[in-house]
Amino acid sequence: MQASPAFQELRSKFRAFVFPMTIAFLVWYFLYVILAVYATDFMATKVFGNITWGLVIGLGQFVTTFLITFLYIRFANREIDPRAESIRLELEGGVA
After folding, report:
1. CA 48 to chain centre
2. Rounded Cα gap, residues 20 and 6, in angstroms
3. Domain boundaries, the chain
4. Following CA atoms 16, 11, 86, 66 in sequence, which dihedral angle do they give, to the nearest 10 degrees?
5. How far is C-alpha 42 from the chain's CA centre?
6. Can you tell me where the transmembrane regions are (predicted)?
7. How far is the C-alpha of 64 from the C-alpha of 95, rounded, in Å?
8. d(CA 45, CA 56)
């Protein structure tokens, strides 16, 4: 089954979403860490009140995590799950 075109397509679709999203998030995360270590003056700059850029970007990490989760669920429901279900049914001989 792993050599089948359907499985290869499923794997390709999955990787086309997951790898770029993972790289983008890691770059975003390490940028935050690097800024926290090397740009302390910038991270300590107040945006408004006692809210600093460090806090804004740190909270942005949480927002980004939830956004990526939302996007992945939507992607999986539209692209991955129907293909996986089709492969499962084929492997089980069409039994639901």
Report:
1. 30
2. 22
3. 5-91
4. -50
5. 27
6. 16-39, 51-73
7. 40
8. 11
48 Ramachandran zone, left/alpha/beta (phi>0; psi -120 to 50): beta
65 φ/ψ angles, rounded to the nearest 5 degrees: -60, -45
What DSSP letter does each residue of 6-20 carry, written as one string? HHHHHHHHHHHHHHH
Burial of 37 (C-beta count, 10 Å sphere; 0-12/13-18/19+): exposed
What are 79's two structure tokens?
A: 């692209």
Helices marked H in the chain: 5-38, 40-43, 53-75, 81-91
What are the pLDDT digits (tens) for 51-69? Answer: 999 999 999 999 999 999 9
pLDDT at 96 over 80: no
pTM for the complete prediction?
0.81
